[in-house]
């Protein structure tokens, strides 16, 4: 155990001494700031205190939405959820809260795809760069098993993505508070759930969103890690992973007529399809099924990484 | 004599190619052993098998009595190595590079790291990033990381590659010092005899994956009495002279000269018999059969690719 912690220290030292790692944090911070500025000047966002005749205003807004929902051919049905939520507010006498840091942070859960991108780059490089630099030869001739070295690298990738997520959360909260203020420590919001609109804790909602995005992130990072271990080339690992990340869901949508498409990883990674009133990509898929498929892919990725790293000779230039 | 490392019937196949063929070799404690052969002879493959980077197809390598196949951790613990070039993390300082490897083996203190830095003379540059080091400095850093855990066997693959003459001299003195003062066995590989002849006690000649012979360097230098010498005779007429010396193995023939192999004792006899036959002797040139000649003899001059 002692030397495993030493290995983690080593891997983190190698990450943190590279400028590229810090550039990733800087990019994320700039995007968060940019999002806040856009949101701040956008008209659709109310940051001021809601006044007493909010029910009347909400009714007018709901009526407008209903009109668009039924008449506009392009937007047909798009606002059903919003209308239901608005009605819930009025019926239960829940005053809508102004836009604040919590909601800003919740919306920024979408930025986890950025973190996926960064984590893919880290995962792709963490094995391949040792081969590229030639340091793999000095790394592997120590009295430590290759399995342990590989594990330390994988854990470092996961740690990196979690620290990045934490960074996203904390900087969203801070920047959000500066721009929009904060509605208490744990406000509630009305969200769609399986049984219609429901009042939930916003913190719980943020936690769920970030957690669900984590699944996709970890799967893509593990895939990049596998390609890196298999081909010892980071460009290839980054290329294939990002390609799959962007085309995966489209391909699944294209193939959704086929029954077997449900066995494709990307049909399953978005567990949001089982939350709220979401519809599964392919009929008949369940949460349990998706979790099983994800687990199977995950194990395959790890086993291939492990075989490629521990069983092969380190030869050539 | 104590054996530090032993190679037993080591074979390596890559695909259908038989890269290493039945290698048997013992490295003694405190000796400097040279692995000599042309490029592609299998030196680096052999070294990679010694440190476990490559698995052997059959056979075994024992390091301080531990098999690298079955007891990898205990075997590799005794080895420090640079495989091919001394490649370091360019974005880490020299110190952090050493700290990195020090963390991987328990019991290496910061004092030990300082000690090793002093040994290789890198004190001044240790805080600088390794990416800015010259090749010579990286070579020293490479030696430093290999010595951190006080290994009993030090393996240096082509240690003089890319170094200037001063650097080569320094490495040479350094390796001798380690072997003599610290009783470390050192294995060096090279494709240039001249570079390792002066630092090695024994040299194994390897070609096409086979160990052709192991030469004792000191033998060929010290043993005056029985050393085979090359005697070049510039004589006239050449034909008659050739008949007279025909009992000696002829090494080469020139336009006016002939070179034969003989020991020191035999030289006066050769001259006497030539004089008696009334042959004009213009010049007699005596050279030691150097290790280089033996090397070429073994591997064939024209096969060096």
UniProtKB/TrEMBL annotation, chain A:
Any one GO MF annotation of this record: ABC-type transporter activity
Gene Ontology CC annotations of this record: plasma membrane
Keywords from the named record: Membrane, Transmembrane, Transmembrane helix
Pfam families xref list: ABC2_membrane_2
Stretches of the chain forming a coiled coil according to its record: none
Transmembrane parts of this sequence: 21-41, 114-133, 154-182, 202-225, 237-256, 287-309
Listed name of the protein: ABC-2 type transport system permease protein
Organism placement in taxonomy: Bacteria, Bacillati, Bacillota, Bacilli, Bacillales
Automatic annotation (TrEMBL), chain B:
InterPro entries hit by this protein: AAA+_ATPase (IPR003593), ABC_transporter-like_ATP-bd (IPR003439), ABC_transporter-like_CS (IPR017871), P-loop_NTPase (IPR027417)
One example GO MF annotation: ATP binding
Keyword Ribonucleoprotein: no
Residues annotated as domain ABC transporter: 5-233
Keyword Transport assigned: yes
Alphabetical UniProt keywords: ATP-binding, Nucleotide-binding, Transport
PANTHER family: ABC TRANSPORTER, ATP-BINDING PROTEIN (PTHR43335)
Annotated family: Belongs to the ABC transporter superfamily.
Protein name: ABC-2 type transport system ATP-binding protein
Organism: Gracilibacillus halotolerans
């Amino acid at each position: 155990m002692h030397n495993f912690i030493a290995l983690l220290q080593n891997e983190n030292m190698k990450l943190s001494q590279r400028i590229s790692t810090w550039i990733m944090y800087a990019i994320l911070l700039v995007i968060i700031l940019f999002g806040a500025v856009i949101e701040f000047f956008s008209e659709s966002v109310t940051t001021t205190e809601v006044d007493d005749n909010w029910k009347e205003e909400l009714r007018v807004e709901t009526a407008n939405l209903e009109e668009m929902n039924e008449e506009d051919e392009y937007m047909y049905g798009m606002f059903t959820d919003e209308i239901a939520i608005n009605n819930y507010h009025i019926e239960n006498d829940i005053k809508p809260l102004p836009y604040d840091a919590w909601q800003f942070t919740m919306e920024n859960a979408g930025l986890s795809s950025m973190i996926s991108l960064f984590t893919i780059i880290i995962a792709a490089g963490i094995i391949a760069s040792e081969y590229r630099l030639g340091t793999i030869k000095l790394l592997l001739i120590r009295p430590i098993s290759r399995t342990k070295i590989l594990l330390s690298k994988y854990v470092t990738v996961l740690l990196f993505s979690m620290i990045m997520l934490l960074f996203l959360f904390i900087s969203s909260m801070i920047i959000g508070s500066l721009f929009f203020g904060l509605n208490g420590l744990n406000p509630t919001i009305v969200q769609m759930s399986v049984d219609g609109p429901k009042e939930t804790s916003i913190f719980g909602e943020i936690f769920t969103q970030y957690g669900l995005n984590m699944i996709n992130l970890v799967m893509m990072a593990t895939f990049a890690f596998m390609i890196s271990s298999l081909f010892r080339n980071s460009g290839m690992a980054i290329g294939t992973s990002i390609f799959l990340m962007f085309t995966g869901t489209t391909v699944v949508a294209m193939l959704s007529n086929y029954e077997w498409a449900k066995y494709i990883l990307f049909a399953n990674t978005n567990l949001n399809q089982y939350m709220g009133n979401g519809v599964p990509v392919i009929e008949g898929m369940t949460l349990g099924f998706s979790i099983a498929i994800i687990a199977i892919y995950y194990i395959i990725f790890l086993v291939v990484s492990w075989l490629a790293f521990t069983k092969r000779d380190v030869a050539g230039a | 004599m104590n054996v530090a490392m032993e190679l037993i019937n080591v074979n390596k196949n890559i695909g259908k190619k038989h890269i290493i063929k039945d290698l048997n070799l013992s490295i003694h404690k405190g000796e400097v052993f040279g692995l000599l052969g042309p490029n592609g002879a299998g030196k680096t493959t052999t070294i990679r098998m010694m440190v476990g980077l490559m698995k052997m197809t059959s056979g075994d390598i024992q390091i301080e009595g531990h098999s690298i196949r079955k007891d990898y951790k205990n075997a590799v613990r005794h080895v420090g190595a640079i495989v091919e070039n001394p490649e370091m993390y360019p974005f880490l300082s020299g110190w952090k590079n050493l700290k990195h490897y020090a963390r991987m083996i328990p019991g290496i203190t910061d004092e030990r790291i300082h000690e090793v830095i002093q040994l290789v003379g890198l004190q001044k540059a240790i805080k600088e990033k390794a990416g800015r080091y010259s090749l010579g400095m990286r070579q020293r850093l490479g030696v430093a990381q290999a010595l951190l855990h006080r290994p009993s066997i030090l393996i240096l693959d082509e240690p003089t590659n890319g170094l200037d003459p001063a650097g080569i001299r320094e490495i040479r003195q350094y390796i001798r010092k380690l072997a003599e003062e610290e009783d470390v066995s050192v294995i060096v590989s090279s494709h240039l005899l001249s570079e390792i002849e002066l630092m090695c006690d024994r040299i194994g000649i390897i070609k096409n994956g086979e160990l052709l012979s192991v030469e004792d360097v000191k033998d060929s230098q010290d043993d005056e009495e029985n050393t085979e010498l090359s005697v070049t005779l510039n004589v006239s007429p050449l034909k008659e002279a050739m008949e007279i010396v025909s009992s000696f193995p002829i090494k080469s023939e020139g336009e006016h000269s002939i070179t034969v192999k003989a020991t020191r004792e035999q030289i006066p006899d050769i001259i006497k018999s030539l004089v008696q036959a009334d042959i004009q002797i213009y010049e007699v040139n005596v050279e030691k059969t150097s290790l280089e000649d033996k090397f070429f003899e073994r591997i064939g001059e024209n096969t060096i690719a």
